[in-house]
Amino acid sequence: MIPIKPKNVIWSDEQWQAIHEHGKNILVSAGAGSGKTAVLTERIIEILKKGVSIDRLIVLTFTKAAASEMKERVRSELQKIVSTHPELTNNLTYLDQANIQTFDSFALEIVKKYHYFLDVSREINIGDKVLLDLKRKEIINDVFNDFYESENKAFYDFINTFTIKNDNLLQQYLFQICLGLDLLIDKDKYLESYIANYYNEVVYNDRLTEYLDLIKFTVERIRKHLRRIDNIITDEVLVNYSERLKDSLADLLASRTYRGFRESVDIKLPQIPRNGDIEEKELVRRERVKISDLLKELKSMLSYASEDEIINELKSTKDHASVIIKIVKEVESRFWDYKKKINLFDFLDIAKLAITLFETNNELRDYYQSHIYEILIDEYQDTNDIQEALISKISNNNVYMVGDIKQSIYRFRNANPEIFKNKYLDFKASNKDVAIDLVKNFRSRKEVLDNINLVFNKVMSLELGGVDYDDNHSLKFGNLAYLKNIAPQDYNFDILTYESDESDLTSVEKEAFIVARDIKKKIDEKYQVFDKKLGTLRDAHFGDFTILASGKKNFETYKKVFEYFNLPLVIHKEEDFIRSNEIYVIKNILRAIHSLNDLQYYKDNFKDAILSLLRSFLVEASDKDISLIFLGDIKEGLNLRFPKIYSSLINISRKVENLTLSEILGEIYKEFDIYYKVVKLGDVEDKENKLNYFLAKFSEFDNLNFTLLDAINYLEEIINSKDLDIDIGMKSEIAKDAINMMTIHMSKGLEFPVCYYVDLSVRFVYKELNDRILFDKEYGIIIPVFREGLKD
Ligand SMILES: Nc1ncnc2c1ncn2[C@@H]1O[C@H](COP(=O)(O)OP(=O)(O)OP(=O)(O)O)[C@@H](O)[C@H]1O
Ligand SMILES: [Mg+2]
After folding, report:
1. Distance (Å, whole) CA 314 – CA 206
2. Are strands 754-757 and 545-549 parallel, antiparallel or unpaired?
3. Atom of ligand 1 nearest to the CA of 481
4. Is the CB of 749 under 6 A from ligand 1?
5. Would you say the CB of residue 406 lies under 6 angstroms from ligand 1?
6. 528-531 vs 536-539, strand pairing mode
7. Please, which pLDDT band fits residue 528 given cuts at 50, 70 and 90?
8. 377 C-alpha to center of ligand 1: Å?
9. How far is CA 130 from CA 380, 721, 722, in A?
10. Is 36 in the pocket of ligand 1 (CB under 6 A)?
């Protein structure tokens, strides 16, 4: 039974239900800022008050920052009531160890705890992605080499079809396929039955139907443009023209079959007449261009002589697919052995291990199903298939999920919003489980909501974004406190614009300046923000501001600009920590040292390594010195001008053989006085942490039997990879007394009084469209049929 709602609580009726409903699976679906996380947190407190201890709850959040925010909320609520509820003291004590965490850390904890059932070590851990990727690529290369040696005919056909110069690109695609396969719950079974599942008459016919649908869709687009012409024109000359245009396309528009389309696609569109209304004619001309482009598209789609030919083409990729499957199987088996040997796995492996654990161990599953009181999941729209499978193993009509389908932007990172959507529909129709909608938004001011509705209404549709942004989905203002506390200023959206001009500043720098100045101005002018805790307006301070960006690549610029303005800025970017000057210096010293012991390597690397080293903050050599060194023998020049550097390199290179990698790095720090020089650059603690991080990383390499060259490759990979996801175990707390800057990804579910959304000039990434061999959950391995080979 849901208790009667007392008069003085802040919760709306729906929220009250969402807090107190129990005894079934519950899905709360509601827009941003409607109180989903607030309700979930309140629910935790209510459950604890019932006497359920906190270790019987599993609470899963989307990011570490969200987990730590939630713990803080629970802590402060508990502290408020613990004097009247002394029995809750234990929960406060154990809050830090409670299962309020991301899905990934939850899965890891389970696997560690029950490692003995899984035949893995207790020390099992998440390996760093760079390291694992590097190894996997190396294994792909090894497997390719073994295939070359085996003189397997199918393999040679595959290579000859897809390569011109070398197999680099092909290896990259194989790597991508491996990554795609990681998302499957049962990869082995999938690979085993791949050929049977994807190469059969049913699939061929499905594909053919889809292909025909695509053709029909394109023809419909032509029809749309014709209609548009009809809607625009009034001039009789052009009306006549429109009729002729339609006549020329009539056969195509009337076709229904592949053959029909193919036979009617060769069309010469009539020329636009010379006379006629000029403005209308221009509009007609534009539509004609679009029709003509679509015809070209159609023609290329209809280049197959017949449907049979299409099917034959599909069939013709079968042998290649078999080779790919064979390679992938071998790669994955070796990769697994490697991971097992070094005891480092990736997140998805760990989640799958956890699933296996419960699948093979009924007792443990029963224990979880009865011991766990409730599993609460925030941001449920971003759940992926593997996470869902794990939850289903340990749950027992006790899952509480909150989410918002409109916020599912992680399809590309495995999230499967269909899970949420289908569950919502099922629960709505069921009388066992329940779906609750929360209607009002309590986070934002009316001005903000109006503007969001305006934009989303225009850009969102069932096809784009998965929902029709109608009245049901639009955000409704609910936080009356904003209305009661009136400030002299305007809270509307501000669009900050700038002109492109001749100045030396890049657009990113300009944006950073604009944002910095605006924050400074708001602080100086005592901009009023509403403090939800105090329930009143107050002067804004730095912690009220946040800068959101779609990617991380411009963070560095903001750091510099904000330093210049003397504004405290905390950047939430873990790899920023790693990919800094120090890593370049370390890499180049290692390259120089390795050069001194390997003649071939010396030829390709020494010059470049020394040049970079001389230019770095460590040496800061002048251009003159550098050119003098490079005029003659580099070693001699170096010895002459920078004898200390030279002798250090020589000294270390002589010892390399007898030292571990971490010892070598230690020597480098010592010989080059790196601690001192780096610390001089400022931010002592940060810099020291960084140097120690690398020492620890190099010890890890020692355990993996890495060579010096492996270590160099690793640093190289970090420097080159664009989208690093390295977890270096830093806390992700939001700064309360500094401006925060983060990606949209990280900001999920958090809130700040003033937000800046920057980098709007950045374009969409259509990366996958350029890939030639792809993996897709539905279509499998997509292999192009072409004969010219992959151009490197
Ligand atoms: N009934 C209420 N009255 C006043 N404020 C509320 C109420 N419910 C929630 N809030 C406040 O509204 C804000 C938004 O709540 P919350 O962060 O829980 O929303 P959400 O639905 O989780 O949003 P998101 O989709 O972004 O995760 C919070 O500051 C919360 O304290
Ligand atoms: Mg939330």
Report:
1. 12
2. parallel
3. 4
4. yes
5. no
6. antiparallel
7. very high
8. 16
9. 28, 8, 11
10. yes
DSSP conformation class of 469 = -
Query: Cα of 40 to ligand 2 centre, how many Å?
Result: 9
Name the residue with the closest Cα to ligand 1, atom 15.
Answer: 35
Q: Which residue has the higher pLDDT, 152 or 129?
A: 152
Per-residue pLDDT band at 792 (split at 50, 70, 90): very low
Q: Which ligand is nearest to the CA of 442?
A: 1
Site to substitute for ligand 1 among 28, 442, 745, most atoms within 8 A of C-beta? 442
Measured from the Cα of 379, ligand 1's closest atom is 27
Distance from the CA of 239 to the center of ligand 2, in angstroms?
Answer: 56
Residue 590: pLDDT band (50, 70, 90) is very high
Q: Does domain 479-577+727-761 have CATH number 1.10.340.30?
A: no
One DSSP character per residue, 374-441 reads: EEEESSGGG--HHHHHHHHHH-SS-EEEEE-GGG---GGGT--HHHHHHHHHHHHH-SSSEEEE--EE
Pocket flag, ligand 1, residue 262 (CB < 6 Å): no
pLDDT of 791 reads 47
CA of 32 to the centre of ligand 1 (A): 8
- Distances from the Cα of 612 to the Cαs of 381, 426, 621, in angstroms? 47, 61, 10
Quote the ligand 2 centre to 540 CA distance (angstroms): 23
Measured between alpha carbons, how far is 17 from 21 in angstroms, rounded to an integer?
5
Please name which ligand lies nearest the alpha carbon of 40.
Answer: 1
Q: Tell which residue, 683, 708, 703, 680, has the closest CA to residue 586.
A: 708
To 5 degrees, how large is the angle CA 430–CA 432–CA 433?
A: 75
Residue 479, ligand 1, Cβ within 6 A? yes
Radius of gyration from C-alpha coordinates of the chain = 31
Give the residue, 357 or 747, on which the prediction is more confident. 357
Task: Tell me which CATH homologous superfamily contains domain 13-122+346-443.
Answer: P-loop containing nucleotide triphosphate hydrolases (3.40.50.300)
- Residue 789 pLDDT exceeds 60: no
Q: 3-class secondary structure for 732-770?
A: CCCCCCCEEEEEHHHHCCCCCCEEEECCCCCCCCCHHHH
pLDDT score of 769: 54
Task: Give residue 765's pLDDT.
Answer: 59
Compute the distance from residue 285 Cα to the ligand 1 centre, in Å. 52
Atom of ligand 1 nearest to the CA of 32: 25
Identify the residue whose C-alpha is closest to ligand 1 atom 5: 442
780-782 and 774-776: which strand pairing? antiparallel
Question: How do residues 355-388 score in pLDDT, each as one tens digit?
Answer: 999 999 999 999 999 999 999 999 999 999 999 9
The residue to mutate among 28, 37, 449, having the most atoms of ligand 1 within 8 angstroms of its beta carbon, is 37
Nearest ligand 1 atom, CA 30: 21
Q: Does any ligand 1 atom lie closer than 6 A to the CB of residue 11?
A: yes
Query: If you ran DSSP here, which 8-state letter would residue 461 be given?
Result: B
Q: Which of 258-272, 437-451, 594-608, 754-768 has the lowest mean pLDDT?
A: 754-768
- What separation in Å is there between the alpha carbon of 469 and the centre of ligand 2? 20
State mean pLDDT over 639-655.
94
Residue 731, pLDDT above cutoff 60: no
**Residue 434: is its pLDDT beyond 50?**
yes
Extract the tokens encoding 658. 């007898």
Going from N- to C-terminal start, the domains of the chain cover: 13-122+346-443, 201-303, 479-577+727-761, 580-720
CATH (residue range 580-720): 1.10.486.10
CA distance 511 to 519: 12
Strands (E), 97-213: 99-102, 125-126
